[in-house]
Amino acid sequence: MALRDLARMARSAPRLEQRLRDLEVEVQECRQVNLRLAELMDVVAELLLPVAQQDPARVEELLARYHESVGGPPRPPVEGT
Predict the structure, then answer these.
(1) Residue 71: pLDDT band by 50, 70, 90 thresholds?
(2) pLDDT of 36-64, one tens digit each?
(3) Do residues 80 and 74 touch, judged by C-beta distance below 8 A?
(4) What is the mean pLDDT of the chain?
(5) H/E element, 70
(6) Quick one: how far is CA 30 from the chain centroid?
(7) Could you please report the per-residue DSSP string of 10-66?
(8) What are the residue ranges spanned by the domains of the chain?
């Protein structure tokens, strides 16, 4: 390996290190999005059965639990439940 190649690699090392840090942050963001998507899919799956069984109290309970888990404002109760 020539001295010139070593010098070029040494100059690019800080950029590569920064790029690696940026990619690690992006991977963590993707993991969080995937986790939220999996949680949402679980809620949807849990909702399908109570909705099919005409169980509005269970539907409200599941929706309230989901809203609490995402840190959103509490849902107002639906009239008649």
Answers:
(1) confident
(2) 999 888 888 877 776 777 778 887 887 88
(3) no
(4) 81
(5) helix 56-70
(6) 7
(7) HHHHHHHHHHHHHHHHHHHHHHHHHHHHHHHHHHHHHHHHHHHTT-HHHHHHHHHHH
(8) 3-70
Q: Which residues neighbour 59 within 8 Å (Cβ) at sequence distance 6 or greater?
A: 47, 50, 51
pLDDT at 81 over 80: no
Among candidate residues 41, 39, 45, 48, the one with its CA nearest the CA of residue 68: 39
Q: Which residues contact 70 (CB under 8 A, 6 or more apart)?
A: 36
Report the pLDDT value the prediction gives residue 58, as an integer from 0 to 100.
81
Tell me which DSSP letter residue 72 carries: P
